[in-house]
Amino acid sequence: MASEIDETNRRDFLMIATGAFAAVGGAAALWPMIDQMNPDASALSLASVEVDLSPIEEGQAITVVWRGKPVFIRNRSKQEIDEAMATKVEDLPDPEARNAAISDDAPASDVNRTKKGKENWLVLVGICTHLGCIPKGQRIGDSKGEFGGWFCPCHGSHYDTSGRIRKGPAPRNLDVPPYEFISDSKIKIG
Amino acid sequence: MSHESTYKPNSNFEKWMDERLPIIRMSAEISSFPTPRNLNYLWTFGGILTFCLVVQIVTGIILAMHYTPHVDYAFDSVQHIKRNVNFGWLLQGIHMVGGSMFFLAVFVHMFRGLYYGSYKAPREILWILGVVLLLLMMATAFMGYVLPWGQMSFWAATVITNLFSAIPLIGESIVQWLWGGFSVDNPTLNRFYALHFLLPFMIFGVVVLHIWALHVTGNNNPIGIDVKGKQDTLAFHPLYTLKDGFALAVFAILFAWFVFYAPDYLGHPDNYIQANPLQTPPHIVPEWYFLPFYAILRAIPSKLLGVIAMVSSILVLFILPWLDTSRVRSAKFRPLYRIFFWIFVVTCLGLGYLGAKPPEGNYLIFARLFTAYYFIHFLIVIPMLGLIERPKPTPNSISESVLGKSKGGGGQPDAVPAAPENR
Ligand code: HEM
Ligand code: FES
User: Fold this and answer.
1) What are the pocket residues of ligand 2 if the criterion is a CB atom closer than 6 Å to any ligand atom?
2) Residue A91 falls in which region: left (phi positive, over 0), alpha (psi -120 to 50) or beta
3) Which of B49, B104, B137 to mutate to test the pocket of ligand 1 (most atoms within 8 A of CB)?
4) Where are the domains of chain A?
5) Cβ of residue B104 lying under 6 Å from some atom of ligand 1
6) Ligand 1: does its nearest atom lie under 6 Å from the Cβ of B105?
7) How far apart are CA B6 and CA B33, in angstroms?
8) From CA B398, how far away is CA B35, in angstroms rounded?
9) Cα–Cα distance between A134 and A61 in angstroms, integer?
């Protein structure tokens, strides 16, 4: 009888070990099938872009493409900067800076979303943080929303002159992509 | 199966087959399947849906022979099908209108289930498989809409895939995984094409399970009481094959009217502009059959909660069989439920109307009210009604309700066995 129990135990062990082996093998076989859908190295390595800012007059904006995404570059007027500076961080739905260049928990003050000494230049990923539409406000005559920045017509999100969400369903401020000034009037994004 | 087999192999060949692959027996059983004798035309929509599925698969495979899944060629290849390919205008038109007809039929089919309580015991699994079919249909229709690579295709794909970014922490990675890049682009188009080709066959498989489940429990019927004996049923063939066939012919007239006279009526003109990733159209509207769900999404001023509400509006159907506390199935005998059923229909139509309007002012207020009521209906009204409602008395049997209590006389000489068995 004792030997019978022993035998059952050994068999149980073998069953479980085999099952576990098959499960791990199955999972390992599954991973390539899942990961193939992720962006590959050729998509990740898409070169950075350089943009000459000199033709952009005060109050004007241009849109460039970086990694297949639109990037908004606006040369803000004095009034737009003042409005952005005057807004208190406590009043913002999203208090985080969302700037690739600084830490995640930095407050969303206007200085944290621009480069020092270049406060007139606002560079943003032009994709609404709600569901990915491209907000209006780049072209002359576009609606800029209730806060003078951008307005997303898809579900009604209003962004201010610092690209911060103020009203509507979007949860986050527009992202500031990684970029640097490589000369006084030229930036490199990415 | 719920009825004994009446099939007897006649020829030697049938006998030989019956012992190897009893497929003749199976068809015979399907055609003699005992079906309640009182089914009305709302029961023909299951057959109509099966027809729609076959039409989509056949026309879809033909379209696939001419379509090119690449961001630079997709738009032109669809125009090429419409303008140059022999009969392309017809086949593409049928496939495009067919999607809408499919949803029209499925909505009627579902409201039929809601009205007659077809989701209640013992048909819970049948109903749940139905909800799975609805989800698969939605996924298929959404991915198919992306393929012509027009402005609405592109922006619908962007907005809908971005719904996943509402998931905390891993949302962004999931979206990039779906896209295969940093925006909707060629990899996205390619995988959507592959999946759009695959999903209808998965739907087909689930339909087989759906009908299998139907054949285990048998059909519900307009008065919602159980079949009690042979006198309550008729063989599926020829009565119901003909009834289904007639309804299908009428449905096909509507279908053909759209295909020949208004193929684009149900679509959106912006989809005849090639996709432009740098410009969002002023109004993004999904296809009409998604409008109620879109209205729910936009009614809620928070991204995550909006997505949760939209998804829940369908998931709630999965638990409906357990939310309903009333034992009486058919709304015919439920005076209160009947009223709330129609209020619910109006709610769904209202949401559909609002889904096409901009989310502001009064539109937004009504969208919120209707959204709230949508959930109140399922989570409060339905459970409560079963407790407070006093149902009307139900007939003793289906045959009694069809043929009259004291013997239908007249044109029914085929002796309906009298009462004793009916209990
Ligand atoms: C691809 C889509 C579908 C197909 C092809 C399909 C097909 C059918 C067929 C052939 C029947 C039997 C005939 C009839 O009662 O009309 C049936 C019954 C039924 N279906 Fe579906 N169906 C689909 C989707 C759905 C959905 C989305 C639901 C609900 C969520 C659903 C719920 C039911 C129920 C409850 C029955 C039994 C009705 C009764 O006997 O009273 N079906 N289906
Ligand atoms: S995508 Fe911008 S508000 Fe919804």
Assistant:
1) A 128, 130-133, 152, 154-157, 168-170
2) alpha
3) B49
4) 1-38, 43-189
5) no
6) no
7) 10
8) 11
9) 14
For A43-189, which CATH class? mainly beta
The reply to whether residue B162 touches residue A130, judged by beta carbons under 8 angstroms, is yes
Ligand 2 atom at minimal distance to the Cα of residue A152: 2
The number of residues making up chain B comes to 423
- Provide the shortest C-alpha distance from residue A34 to chain B (in Å): 9
Q: What is the ipTM of this complex?
A: 0.81
Q: pLDDT tens digits, residue range B225-261?
A: 999 999 999 999 999 999 999 999 999 999 999 999 9
Each residue's pLDDT tens digit, B254-294: 999 999 999 999 999 999 999 999 989 988 899 999 999 99
Q: Cβ of A43 and B162 within 8 Å?
A: no
Distance CA(B112)–CA(B130), nearest Å, equals 12
Q: Is the model's pLDDT at B158 over the cut of 80?
A: yes
In tens, the pLDDT along B83-124 reads 999 999 999 999 999 999 999 999 999 999 999 999 999 999
Q: Which chain A residues touch B283 with a CB distance below 8 Å? A: 153
Alpha-carbon gap, residue B415 to B336, rounded angstroms: 37
**The listed CATH number (3.40.605.10, 1.20.810.10, 1.10.150.290, 3.40.50.1980) that belongs to domain B35-267+275-284:** 1.20.810.10
Q: Within chain A, which residues score under 70 in pLDDT?
A: 1-7, 46-47
| CB neighbour list of residue A27: distance below 8 Å, 6 or more residues apart | none
> pTM for the complete prediction?
0.88
Q: What are the tens digits of pLDDT across the range B112-156?
A: 999 999 999 999 999 999 999 999 999 999 999 999 999 999 999
Q: Which residue has the tokens 């936009």?
A: B298
Tell me the C-alpha distance between B47 and B57, whole Å.
Answer: 16
Sheet holding A179-183, edge to edge: A49-52, A186-189, A179-183
Give the single-character DSSP code of A55.
T
Domain with CATH 1.10.287.980 in chain B: 286-398+413-423
Confidence of residue B404 (pLDDT cuts 50, 70, 90): confident
Which residue intervals of chain B bear CATH 1.20.810.10? 35-267+275-284
Cβ contact, residue pair A131, B163, below 8 Å: yes
Task: Work out how many CB contacts closer than 8 A connect A with B.
Answer: 81
Axis-axis angle for helices B303-323, B291-299 (nearest 10): 120
- Rounded distance from Cα B357 to ligand 1 centre (Å): 31
Q: Quote the CATH superfamily of domain B286-398+413-423.
A: plastocyanin oxidoreductase (1.10.287.980)
Residue nearest to atom 1 of ligand 2 (CA): A131
